């Protein structure tokens, strides 16, 4: 995508604004013209017999998708409520047509050049304008452009887009292959054969074909805006800012402006740099000669005492504005600008004395321990995702002390607003190219060329964001080929074809995409696959490169304590599943069907094709016992997930600097169902997200018990050292203290410091392990920074008493709690105190939404915990609705 100014096609109901952009005006040349969008099932499609009414034109929303248009027209049920998925697969087998009718004003028609830009066509699209062929598209990740000079008319322009079924378009060729490359998740619905999956052959979001956390809805539509642009002599097409050198005293930048010129000529170009407060700190004026076609102007700029952009927790997220203006100080002036941060990024891969090789992100010369999660798409239908939804989830990530998110490769390249917010919040982004698994036909030159175009579009679109610190070729394709049997099986069946497939993989991910990033990525590193060692012999190695670890939860479903025996250089995937918050499920699954094995619950459990609850019960029962009902099952699933991921994440952090990253799977949900997320589809935090806020804190204690020994480490992710105190107490469940020790320590910057190992026998000294706990704490003076409770027996063996909690809820500030933050500003204060230990306390407000700044916690006997919360409800309503659930409540009555 070119980086010139643009206005998006947005409108209520069935109306669309096609915005006309001119190069010789500021920046909109004409008033927006209203155009009506409509859609229909393409006449002659075989599905017309079952759906004859859909062959008539109906109002459409653009950006959008066929599924959402059908839903808006009342033609299908809500795809998320109940279990309608099987009955909606016909939509992905059908061909559809969209139509827009619009007028064009005289000023636009008078300009020499005009172009229609389609930022998201999903996917096999034939576009005509006023009956004339315009373009053929076959990649939903690309921006497609078509010149429309001389094709527009003043009134009644007719734009048609026919969208062919990707399944029916590709299936004959895939079925004809004597040996097929590996796909991902076969359809259980019969819309395509299980042995001939088309998803890997089409450039559309892979998750639309179904995944183990989301449904199968093979969409079609115009999912991103359409714009009409017009200009005369020249237009600005791109602006890039590359940081050549940077430290606290000086920044040396190279600013490149790209200009398309219709003919040989010259024009003034002005480049300005504005600091984070908007004060101009640099200005450069040039009047270059242009050749006909594309032109580039590169200008060096030096800034004194620059303000650098830092990841969250390391400094400010300073951002400068860089603006290029063509023909400044004239009536014809037009400009483009970018907001960017000044930072350097390095993927440091030092070889150690044992032959291993590190994997650490170094920002502005500082090695950063990456704390965060993997991000999947926010909805099955991307056009439904607005900026507020993205801000909600990314703010939650930052509030949980994360500093990195990995944009996983089976979805789509996120909108610019995602990266704007990540820049603002200081969230580093590991960005996959959109390949989610299996294997690709990289042996096909046309396929590779299509992907290269896609990659160039998106790298150029996103390269100015300081948050983007890695471009990664794909998700799990190399390890699937080398470790899962994909390569072995194809080699056994057809060695020559297997060699061709692998060479195509190397060509695409080892060479083509690497070159695109080198050419366009402004110095951001490239990594060929995750997990990998960048095409080294071993793909998923704990001593080199990044690691995906699924022996816990996946195959062979090892116990959670196995996390302590896996120490990678960078853990980019690991996870445990849990169900969403019950309040989220109440709107999706009827109360009568809220049973572990009901058909509707199984429809929202995609792991193991609906059998995933058995795996979930295995992990719950091993540690917590058998749930007595569905609400207990949901609660214990979240407790298990939170405890397990906490164990792994703290182990990773305690292994610094050998390990330099911990990204759990996954942050968010694509729909309301069972998954590995820590935030459910409605935006409600699961227990894991509250735990993450504690275990990802910049200062934390990691007390890791394994095989009867507890290893205690103190963690400091700041660039400043800390004079701290740590305390170890052994308590009975009723609060009686058996022993205490306290130590002062100088905690180095950017460090994990082991301070002791303690055998159970030395801590218990004969006490009953079922009635005794150890409490580890880290203090800065009198301020408690971190607390962790260590248990000596499985949770189901603890001799817990029914929870007795002294709770006080009062207004704080204005007391109305209006807002959506996590405890910031006016709201309420909940004070809790318990005479005996309360394990895994979950605080809820029955039928009332409230946002808490802490939850899913253990109450240490006799200690007061203060929690801030926000809600639209009044104080009396909240008091009446307040509910507590703890581990003691799960015991059989």
How would you summarize the topology of this molecule?
Elements: E1 15-18, E2 20-21, E3 33-41, E4 58-59, H1 66-72, H2 90-93, E5 96-102, H3 106-110, E6 113-118, E7 121-122, E8 124-129, E9 132-138, E10 144-147, E11 157-164, H4 166-176, E12 221-222, E13 226-231, E14 234-246, E15 250-261, E16 265-266, E17 269-274, E18 280-286, E19 289-290, E20 293-304, E21 320-326, E22 334-340, E23 345-348, E24 360-363, E25 366-368, E26 370-375, H5 387-399, E27 404-407, H6 416-425, E28 428-432, H7 445-462, E29 468-472, H8 477-483, H9 486-493, H10 495-520, E30 526-527, E31 547-548, E32 571-573, H11 582-586, H12 599-603, H13 612-623, H14 630-654, E33 661-664, H15 687-695, E34 699-706, E35 709-716, E36 722-732, E37 737-747, E38 751-759, H16 760-764, E39 772-780, E40 783-791, E41 806-812, E42 827-833, E43 838-845, E44 851-852, E45 857-859, E46 864-870, H17 875-881, E47 882-885
Parallel strand pairs: 2-13, 26-27, 26-33, 27-28, 28-29, 29-30, 31-32
Antiparallel strand pairs: 1-3, 3-4, 3-5, 5-11, 6-10, 6-13, 7-12, 8-9, 8-11, 14-15, 15-20, 16-19, 17-18, 17-21, 21-22, 23-24, 24-25, 34-35, 35-38, 36-37, 36-39, 39-40, 41-42, 42-46, 43-45, 43-47, 44-46
Helix pairs in contact: 5-6, 7-10, 9-10, 13-14, 14-15
